[in-house]
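[recover] target loaded
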């Protein structure tokens, strides 16, 4: 996208784009919209060349789709394909960008901080390092519902003190929903305690315990790759996961991306920051509608949109253009 286009598009005042992370993938995603818009297959071809994998084939057949090192580049590519379709249709750029976990990289590509090629290489490596950091079956994640954040933190601390290993809050998703991650036996211990306290605990079908201290070895190796990758400050502010803030310089940006591997995703605070900055509309740019559904429940968000089908794309395009005063 040209600088001129971004300058015109940056007039959006009430809209933020959010990009999903792992868990939003499904076999056959974007097949329908790819038939209508050439940008989808072109984006997948560009990303596939960068990592030497046929990402579109993985997406459509499901072969290896849930292997972390494949899931991450596939999801990033899918999100950027939809972003490019949005722009090709005359969609305006938002006031802010944010991404949940892996989605932060999609946001950085959309903001022209990273090229798609470099970002796909980074997340492919990120997935490999994360997969290798913890032996299969020794880590786990679970969603805890119905307890206050402080209660979940306390249960994690108690389990970590009494058991072997660690369990921590990994994602603060919304009020009353925290994802925990860590040593599998301790995650199970917290889940049992939560259920005994009338809360709800759901084991997540993941192979890697993300956003906890078990990922520190992966982060150390990943930091080297980040240092060797050309990164600029984004042209649209990107709210980063670890501190729910936009970086003031590239050093801060790189540091936050490194820490994101082993620190919790501050998604609740991210959405609150958007609301504090008069964001009324949230558009989820990626497969599915996990993030837009979470935002729907917030009192100050007027409407949320997803973009992963042609009809959803067109609905969002028209509604945002009207809301931002670009068309009557």
């Amino acid at each position: 996208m040209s600088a001129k286009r971004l300058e015109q598009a940056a007039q959006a005042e009430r809209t933020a784009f959010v990009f999903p992370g792992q868990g939003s993938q499904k076999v056959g995603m974007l097949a329908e919209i790819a038939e209508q818009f050439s940008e989808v297959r072109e984006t997948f071809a560009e990303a596939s060349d960068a990592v030497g994998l046929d990402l579109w084939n993985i997406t459509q057949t499901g072969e290896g789709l849930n292997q972390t090192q494949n899931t991450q580049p596939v999801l990033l590519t899918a999100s950027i394909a939809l972003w490019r379709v949005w722009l090709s249709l005359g969609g305006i750029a938002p006031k802010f960008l944010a991404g949940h976990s892996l989605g932060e990289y999609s946001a950085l590509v959309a903001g022209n901080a990273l090229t798609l090629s470099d970002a796909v290489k980074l997340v492919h490596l990120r997935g490999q390092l994360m997969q290798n950091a913890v032996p299969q079956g020794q880590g786990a994640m679970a969603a805890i519902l119905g307890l206050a954040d402080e209660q979940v933190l306390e249960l994690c601390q108690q389990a970590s003190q009494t058991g072997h290993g660690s369990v921590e809050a990994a994602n603060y998703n919304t009020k009353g929903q925290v994802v925990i991650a860590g040593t599998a036996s301790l995650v199970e211990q917290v889940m049992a305690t939560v259920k005994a306290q009338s809360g709800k605990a759901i084991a997540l079908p993941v192979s890697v315990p993300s956003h906890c201290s078990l990922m520190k070895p992966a982060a150390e190796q990943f930091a080297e790759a980040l240092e060797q990758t050309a990164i600029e400050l984004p042209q649209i502010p990107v709210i980063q996961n670890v501190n729910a803030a936009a970086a003031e310089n590239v050093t801060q940006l790189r540091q936050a991306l490194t820490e994101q591997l082993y620190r919790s995703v501050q998604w609740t605070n991210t959405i609150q920051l958007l609301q504090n900055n008069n964001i009324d509309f949230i558009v989820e740019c990626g497969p599915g509608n996990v993030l837009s559904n979470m935002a729907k429940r917030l009192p100050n968000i007027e409407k949320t949109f997803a973009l992963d089908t042609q009809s959803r794309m067109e609905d969002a395009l028209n509604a945002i253009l009207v809301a931002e005063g670009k068309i009557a």
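[recover] notes: Residues 69 and 144 are 26 Å apart (CA to CA).
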